[in-house]
Design the sequence.
Protein backbone atom coordinates (compact mmCIF):
# COMPACT_ATOMS: atom_id res chain seq x y z
CA UNK A 1 0.00 0.00 0.00
CA UNK A 2 1.45 3.39 -0.98
CA UNK A 3 2.68 5.53 1.90
CA UNK A 4 0.77 8.58 0.65
CA UNK A 5 -2.50 6.74 0.16
CA UNK A 6 -5.40 8.63 1.68
CA UNK A 7 -6.57 7.61 5.14
CA UNK A 8 -10.30 7.37 4.49
CA UNK A 9 -11.20 7.15 8.17
CA UNK A 10 -9.49 10.46 8.87
CA UNK A 11 -11.06 12.10 5.84
CA UNK A 12 -14.60 10.91 6.54
CA UNK A 13 -14.26 11.83 10.22
CA UNK A 14 -13.53 15.40 9.15
CA UNK A 15 -16.60 15.32 6.90
CA UNK A 16 -18.72 14.11 9.82
CA UNK A 17 -17.49 16.95 12.01
CA UNK A 18 -18.30 19.53 9.31
CA UNK A 19 -21.80 18.13 8.91
CA UNK A 20 -22.36 18.07 12.67
CA UNK A 21 -21.39 21.75 12.82
CA UNK A 22 -24.02 22.50 10.16
CA UNK A 23 -26.63 19.98 11.31
CA UNK A 24 -29.25 22.54 12.32
CA UNK A 25 -28.92 24.54 9.12
CA UNK A 26 -29.28 21.40 7.02
CA UNK A 27 -32.38 20.36 8.96
CA UNK A 28 -33.86 23.79 8.30
CA UNK A 29 -33.04 23.56 4.59
CA UNK A 30 -35.01 20.31 4.35
CA UNK A 31 -38.54 21.47 3.49
CA UNK A 32 -39.94 17.93 3.58
CA UNK A 33 -38.88 16.09 6.72
CA UNK A 34 -36.66 18.70 8.42
CA UNK A 35 -34.12 16.02 9.33
CA UNK A 36 -31.57 16.10 6.52
CA UNK A 37 -28.81 17.29 8.83
CA UNK A 38 -29.53 14.45 11.25
CA UNK A 39 -29.43 11.98 8.36
CA UNK A 40 -26.14 13.30 6.99
CA UNK A 41 -24.39 13.07 10.36
CA UNK A 42 -25.69 9.51 10.74
CA UNK A 43 -24.54 8.63 7.21
CA UNK A 44 -20.96 9.74 7.66
CA UNK A 45 -20.71 8.38 11.18
CA UNK A 46 -21.57 4.98 9.70
CA UNK A 47 -19.18 5.48 6.78
CA UNK A 48 -16.36 6.45 9.14
CA UNK A 49 -16.97 3.41 11.35
CA UNK A 50 -17.05 1.13 8.31
CA UNK A 51 -13.75 2.31 6.81
CA UNK A 52 -12.12 2.20 10.25
CA UNK A 53 -13.13 -1.44 10.55
CA UNK A 54 -11.54 -2.25 7.18
CA UNK A 55 -8.66 0.21 7.54
CA UNK A 56 -5.96 -2.29 6.58
CA UNK A 57 -7.75 -3.24 3.38
CA UNK A 58 -7.36 -1.47 0.01
CA UNK A 59 -9.45 1.66 -0.50
CA UNK A 60 -11.86 -0.13 -2.84
CA UNK A 61 -12.63 -2.73 -0.17
CA UNK A 62 -13.18 -0.02 2.44
CA UNK A 63 -15.56 1.86 0.17
CA UNK A 64 -17.45 -1.30 -0.78
CA UNK A 65 -17.90 -2.26 2.89
CA UNK A 66 -19.06 1.27 3.74
CA UNK A 67 -21.61 1.09 0.93
CA UNK A 68 -22.90 -2.26 2.19
CA UNK A 69 -23.19 -1.11 5.79
CA UNK A 70 -24.87 2.15 4.84
CA UNK A 71 -27.43 0.33 2.71
CA UNK A 72 -28.30 -1.97 5.61
CA UNK A 73 -28.24 0.44 8.55
CA UNK A 74 -29.61 3.74 7.21
CA UNK A 75 -32.91 4.03 5.39
CA UNK A 76 -33.09 7.67 4.29
CA UNK A 77 -33.04 8.58 0.62
CA UNK A 78 -29.76 10.43 1.12
CA UNK A 79 -28.22 7.36 2.74
CA UNK A 80 -29.16 5.20 -0.23
CA UNK A 81 -27.80 7.81 -2.65
CA UNK A 82 -24.45 7.90 -0.84
CA UNK A 83 -24.41 4.11 -0.64
CA UNK A 84 -24.69 4.07 -4.42
CA UNK A 85 -21.91 6.65 -4.68
CA UNK A 86 -19.65 4.60 -2.45
CA UNK A 87 -20.38 1.52 -4.53
CA UNK A 88 -19.47 3.39 -7.72
CA UNK A 89 -16.25 4.57 -6.11
CA UNK A 90 -15.39 1.05 -4.96
CA UNK A 91 -15.77 -0.22 -8.51
CA UNK A 92 -13.72 2.62 -10.01
CA UNK A 93 -10.85 2.30 -7.52
CA UNK A 94 -10.60 -1.48 -7.63
CA UNK A 95 -6.94 -2.29 -8.12
CA UNK A 96 -5.92 1.35 -7.72
CA UNK A 97 -4.51 3.34 -4.83
CA UNK A 98 -6.58 6.28 -3.62
CA UNK A 99 -4.10 9.15 -3.52
CA UNK A 100 -4.36 12.97 -3.65
CA UNK A 101 -3.63 12.86 -7.38
CA UNK A 102 -6.79 10.91 -8.16
CA UNK A 103 -8.95 11.52 -5.08
CA UNK A 104 -10.93 14.30 -6.77
CA UNK A 105 -12.51 11.50 -8.75
CA UNK A 106 -13.88 10.20 -5.44
CA UNK A 107 -15.76 13.46 -4.85
CA UNK A 108 -17.60 13.29 -8.15
CA UNK A 109 -18.37 9.60 -7.74
CA UNK A 110 -19.88 10.26 -4.32
CA UNK A 111 -21.92 13.16 -5.70
CA UNK A 112 -23.20 11.04 -8.59
CA UNK A 113 -21.51 12.81 -11.50
CA UNK A 114 -22.08 10.68 -14.61
CA UNK A 115 -18.85 11.77 -16.29
CA UNK A 116 -16.80 10.42 -13.38
CA UNK A 117 -18.70 7.13 -13.47
CA UNK A 118 -17.77 6.67 -17.13
CA UNK A 119 -14.12 7.58 -16.66
CA UNK A 120 -12.75 4.05 -16.32
CA UNK A 121 -14.60 2.58 -19.28
CA UNK A 122 -13.70 5.52 -21.52
CA UNK A 123 -10.82 7.64 -20.17
CA UNK A 124 -11.64 11.31 -20.45
CA UNK A 125 -11.01 14.67 -18.91
CA UNK A 126 -13.95 15.51 -16.70
CA UNK A 127 -14.32 19.32 -16.75
CA UNK A 128 -15.32 19.58 -13.12
CA UNK A 129 -12.39 17.46 -11.99
CA UNK A 130 -10.04 19.61 -14.08
CA UNK A 131 -11.36 22.74 -12.36
CA UNK A 132 -10.95 21.12 -8.97
CA UNK A 133 -7.44 19.96 -9.83
CA UNK A 134 -6.55 23.56 -10.61
CA UNK A 135 -7.97 24.70 -7.28
CA UNK A 136 -6.18 21.95 -5.40
CA UNK A 137 -2.90 22.93 -7.04
CA UNK A 138 -3.34 26.59 -6.14
CA UNK A 139 -4.21 25.81 -2.52
CA UNK A 140 -1.30 23.43 -2.04
CA UNK A 141 1.21 25.49 -4.05
CA UNK A 142 1.76 22.66 -6.49
CA UNK A 143 0.76 22.14 -10.09
CA UNK A 144 -1.71 19.34 -10.65
CA UNK A 145 -1.51 18.14 -14.23
CA UNK A 146 -4.51 16.32 -15.63
CA UNK A 147 -4.92 14.02 -18.57
CA UNK A 148 -4.46 15.67 -21.94
CA UNK A 149 -7.00 13.69 -23.95
CA UNK A 150 -10.31 15.28 -24.74
CA UNK A 151 -12.20 12.18 -25.85
CA UNK A 152 -15.51 11.36 -24.23
CA UNK A 153 -16.32 14.76 -22.76
CA UNK A 154 -19.99 15.10 -21.94
CA UNK A 155 -20.94 18.48 -23.40
CA UNK A 156 -24.02 18.79 -21.22
CA UNK A 157 -21.94 18.33 -18.07
CA UNK A 158 -19.32 20.74 -19.39
CA UNK A 159 -21.91 23.43 -20.04
CA UNK A 160 -23.74 22.87 -16.75
CA UNK A 161 -20.57 22.98 -14.70
CA UNK A 162 -19.12 25.94 -16.58
CA UNK A 163 -22.33 27.93 -16.35
CA UNK A 164 -22.66 27.27 -12.63
CA UNK A 165 -19.04 28.37 -12.13
CA UNK A 166 -19.52 31.61 -14.05
CA UNK A 167 -22.79 32.44 -12.32
CA UNK A 168 -21.24 31.87 -8.90
CA UNK A 169 -18.29 34.11 -9.72
CA UNK A 170 -20.66 36.80 -10.97
CA UNK A 171 -22.43 36.65 -7.60
CA UNK A 172 -19.10 37.39 -5.96
CA UNK A 173 -18.53 33.94 -4.51
CA UNK A 174 -15.02 32.66 -3.88
CA UNK A 175 -13.31 30.40 -6.37
CA UNK A 176 -13.83 27.47 -3.97
CA UNK A 177 -17.57 28.15 -3.73
CA UNK A 178 -17.84 28.58 -7.49
CA UNK A 179 -16.05 25.30 -8.19
CA UNK A 180 -18.21 23.43 -5.71
CA UNK A 181 -21.30 24.88 -7.41
CA UNK A 182 -19.91 23.57 -10.71
CA UNK A 183 -19.49 20.07 -9.26
CA UNK A 184 -23.01 20.01 -7.87
CA UNK A 185 -24.56 21.34 -11.09
CA UNK A 186 -23.94 18.12 -12.99
CA UNK A 187 -24.46 15.69 -10.12
CA UNK A 188 -27.23 13.54 -8.66
CA UNK A 189 -26.89 15.32 -5.30
CA UNK A 190 -27.41 18.68 -6.97
CA UNK A 191 -30.95 17.82 -8.00
CA UNK A 192 -32.44 18.95 -4.67
CA UNK A 193 -31.54 22.09 -2.73
CA UNK A 194 -30.87 20.49 0.65
CA UNK A 195 -28.75 17.67 -0.82
CA UNK A 196 -26.80 20.21 -2.86
CA UNK A 197 -26.13 22.18 0.32
CA UNK A 198 -24.85 19.14 2.21
CA UNK A 199 -23.01 17.89 -0.87
CA UNK A 200 -21.04 21.13 -1.02
CA UNK A 201 -20.07 20.68 2.63
CA UNK A 202 -18.93 17.11 1.97
CA UNK A 203 -17.02 18.05 -1.18
CA UNK A 204 -15.51 21.17 0.34
CA UNK A 205 -14.21 19.30 3.38
CA UNK A 206 -12.67 16.61 1.17
CA UNK A 207 -10.98 19.30 -0.92
CA UNK A 208 -9.60 21.07 2.13
CA UNK A 209 -8.23 17.82 3.51
CA UNK A 210 -6.46 17.11 0.24
CA UNK A 211 -5.16 20.65 -0.25
CA UNK A 212 -3.70 20.75 3.25
CA UNK A 213 -2.00 17.42 2.75
CA UNK A 214 -4.15 15.70 5.37
CA UNK A 215 -5.63 12.25 5.26
CA UNK A 216 -2.37 10.56 4.33
CA UNK A 217 -1.27 7.35 5.99
Sequence:
Amino acid sequence: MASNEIDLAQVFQAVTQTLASNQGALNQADDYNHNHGDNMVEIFNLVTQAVQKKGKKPAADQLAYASKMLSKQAQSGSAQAYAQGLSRAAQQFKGRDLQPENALELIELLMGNPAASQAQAQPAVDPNAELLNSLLGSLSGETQSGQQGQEGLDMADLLAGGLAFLQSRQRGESTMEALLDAVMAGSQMGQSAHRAQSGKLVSGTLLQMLAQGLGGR
Q: What stands out?
A: Residues 193-211 form the longest helix (19 residues).
